[in-house]
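Before going further, learn to read the protein records used in this course. The integers have meaning only within a learned vocabulary of local backbone shapes. To see the layout at work, look at the sequence and tokens printed below.
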Amino acid sequence: MNLTDFVLIILSLAVPLAVIWWAVRSHRLINKKIQRGDISILSDSGVKIKRITQGPPGTQIYDDATLVYSQQRKF
């Protein structure tokens, strides 16, 4: 076995292990944010919200809505 073979073996093992480590670390960080109620998770690029399961009474959910602020008038 020469040096080139050894380097290829190390790289072929290191890359999958690095990907697995990154996925586990990312999963743990997201779970910690959920447990703490960290609102920054809403803007995290690694999180996609598919469904809201709890909300206050009267909550309305719109898919792909654009927020528009308006002034309310009192009559």
Remarks:
- The chain has a mean pLDDT of 81.
- Residues 3-43 form one domain.
- The CA atoms of residues 26 and 46 lie 8 Å apart.
- The two ends are 86 Å apart (CA to CA).
